[in-house]
């Protein structure tokens, strides 16, 4: 009888622990369910159930419908993230609040062909274009519906907690736009509440465990003082946790072994996938040359230094002579500039460290992309004009080249060479745009010798 009660003591402890753990989880789930409802409400303020995608095309693009937001997410990531973020300026402006700033009737023609909107003399467009140093945003062969879904995605993102993490600017943006800000605040408020609750529960749990251990020890002491215990009872009473047995248990070894194997496998796969990838590579250069200073603040044209970028295969790294056009006069006493003089005196080129480097098996031609296709340098090289030290912005993998060729429409307007090809394409598949890949841009031999 006694022994029964004794044996059930550890069980009682375990049951208590489990109850508490369960309660804690349930509360956390409740709280997160709350959060979810809050943020959903934030995304679709006053959205009527059953709103069709067609009504979303109306100026109230904020009335987002989940499918449109999802489609917009994919489209935005595929086409816009090179130059835009929601809450911060990248190459182009931050897009938060765009649906309030511009009507959808402006946004659609802008994304289809921003140059045309600027050329039409639209006041807002011209001012924006000048503000961004006359960088032209590329044209996109997207449908009205696709553009509307991108705007819906942007509007949905404005109220997201991830955005709130970027701090005051974001909060201001959201505040200026709509009630999403309030939802966002409630959101983070709920998050804090959950944190405090969890901490409180953990503290309570620890106190409980300590109390139970003390009670357990007290009970043991009382029992030890009793005379009527038989041999088996004392055995249970003096039982200690057998660590040796615990270590040797096959279950524990199995679990540890499995975790170890999974971590090893994951790391292995990660490092194998990254072989040959040099995205983000940012070597220290022999002279502290800054693109931010030259191409950004002083607005020196890229082609002033990279002389063959519109004419030839390679972009060309400038020789010291080009630096001397200015630095025979400017900052002549700077130790960094003296390095240029020393290179010239020694008749040796400056040993710049090469950053971008495709393997020899691939053929890439700059003029085809800059002159013919009219792509911005930033599309592939990122915000060079803000880089103190240049780094490799794109992955430069084959998938990267191919993806762009699949998605980018060819610039065929006013080019008679393409007329017959476009006609042929349209008779076969008029719905799909005439992309680089429709013109054979994904054939192996185009890129591989
Ligand atoms: C190669 C860079 C680049 C890409 C890619 C790009 N944009 Fe832009 N975008 C810009 C620049 C630069 C501006 C500023 C206006 C200018 O200089 O022409 C701009 C302006 C805008 C504006 C006006 C913003 C405002 O504050 O009024 C909108 C809207 C916009 N872009 C949407 C998009 C969308 C949507 C996509 C993707 C489909 C996209 N952009 C892709 C560079 C880009
Ligand atoms: C005043 C001259 C000058 C101007 C203007 C200039 N660059 Fe450069 N660029 C250099 C020099 C020198 C290097 C080599 C040192 C380095 O990487 O910083 C370089 C390196 C680069 C690289 C990396 C090359 C490699 O090793 O793979 C890229 C990409 C690049 N420039 C793009 C641009 C773009 C885009 C612009 C215009 C927005 C521009 N540059 C404007 C001088 C210039
Ligand atoms: C079109 C003119 C022009 C050309 C070409 C040019 N620079 Fe400059 N450079 C400038 C100007 C302007 C500054 C800023 C001077 C200042 O801060 O007062 C500058 C500053 C610098 C500085 C910073 C000096 C310091 O100590 O603050 C370095 C380093 C530099 N240039 C290197 C180069 C190199 C290397 C080249 C050739 C690849 C080059 N520049 C080509 C105009 C030029
Ligand atoms: C379609 C993408 C794309 C565009 C647009 C682009 N580049 Fe490049 N750039 C590359 C790739 C890929 C390489 C690596 C080439 C190689 O290793 O053969 C490269 C290399 C370079 C280099 C290193 C020297 C060389 O030629 O290998 C410079 C400098 C450079 N680019 C400057 C520019 C400038 C300036 C512009 C805009 C006028 C520009 N690029 C536009 C993809 C692009
Ligand atoms: C940002 C988009 C973009 C990226 C990235 C890009 N390209 Fe292109 N590429 C184009 C466009 C647009 C054209 C079509 C130019 C024209 O009008 O002929 C093109 C054309 C070409 C052509 C000529 C195709 C033909 O049919 O004659 C070759 C070859 C090529 N690219 C190679 C590459 C390689 C190699 C890479 C990767 C290192 C690459 N491209 C990355 C956009 C891109
Ligand atoms: C738009 C240009 C382009 C086209 C089209 C293209 N490739 Fe590539 N390919 C590349 C580039 C760039 C690389 C180098 C990528 C890297 O270094 O990660 C590459 C790498 C490869 C490699 C890997 C070589 C190595 O050393 O790892 C193989 C294999 C390959 N391509 C085969 C093909 C085949 C087969 C086709 C036709 C179905 C094809 N490629 C079409 C651009 C292209």
TrEMBL record:
Organism superkingdom: Bacteria
Signal sequence, start to end: 1-28
Keyword hit for Nucleotide-binding: no
Residue ranges annotated for the Cytochrome c domain, each copy included: 67-158
Ranges annotated as spanning the membrane: 196-219, 250-269
Keywords: Electron transport, Heme, Iron, Membrane, Metal-binding, Signal, Transmembrane, Transmembrane helix, Transport
GO molecular function per UniProt: electron transfer activity; heme binding; metal ion binding
Nucleotidyltransferase is among the record's keywords: no
Pfam families: Cytochrom_C (PF00034), Cytochrom_CIII (PF02085)
CDD domains for the chain: Cytochrom_C3
Protein name stated in the entry: Cytochrome C
